[in-house]
Amino acid sequence: MLRGDVELRIQDGWAGWRWTHGFAEDVAEAVVAAVTNSASAARIYNVGEFHAPTMVERLTEFARVAGWHGNIIEVPASELPETDRMPYDFSHHIVSDTARIRTDLGYKEVIPHEFALARTLEYEMATEF
Q1: What is the rounded distance in angstroms from the CA atom of residue 83 to the CA atom of residue 85?
Q2: What's the rounded Cα separation, in Å, for the pair 118 and 116?
Q3: What structural domains and CATH numbers belong to the chain?
Q4: How many angstroms separate the CA atoms of 10 and 1, rounded?
Q5: Please, is 127 exposed, middle or buried when counting C-beta atoms within 10 Å of its C-beta (0-12, 13-18, 19+)?
Q6: Average pLDDT estimate for 48-74
Q7: By C-alpha distance, which of 125, 126, 113 is closest to 25?
Q8: Which residues lie closer than 8 Å to 81 by C-beta, 6 or more apart?
Q9: d(Cα 27, Cα 94) in Å, to the nearest integer?
């Protein structure tokens, strides 16, 4: 996507997989909220985005922010180069319910979603090339 390719081929099992992410500054905000609020005593909180999209949805968001107009194509692992294959079982999502910290402490993201995506892309471009 960042190279400007018109096609991004991704592993089909991974495409539909969901995993909760959190932008670093938002996670820091959650930690501060937990440390400074007495209501958090003896409580455990999950931190991350409110809704965890599938990986193909996440890539589509990045494509939109990056201005990339190519196609994301889900393919079997066997159709990808060996180095791009992920030998994992994607039948179990890693999604965290963040309702408790939002309800107990009034936590909410402080960084606008679009800005967090753009900052993540900037970081990837600076470290990838």
Answers
A1: 6
A2: 5
A3: 7-128 (3.40.50.720)
A4: 12
A5: exposed
A6: 96
A7: 113
A8: none
A9: 17
CA dihedral 55, 90, 128, 68 (to 10 degrees): -30
Which pair of tokens denotes residue 94? Answer: 């890693």
The 3 state secondary structure assigned to 14-56 is HHCCEECCCCHHHHHHHHHHHHHCHHHCCCCCCCCCCCCCEHH
Amino acid, res. 77:
A
Q: Which residues contact residue 102 at a Cβ distance below 8 angstroms, ignoring those fewer than 6 apart?
A: 50, 108
69-98, pLDDT tens digit by residue? 999 999 999 999 999 999 999 999 999 999
pTM: 0.88
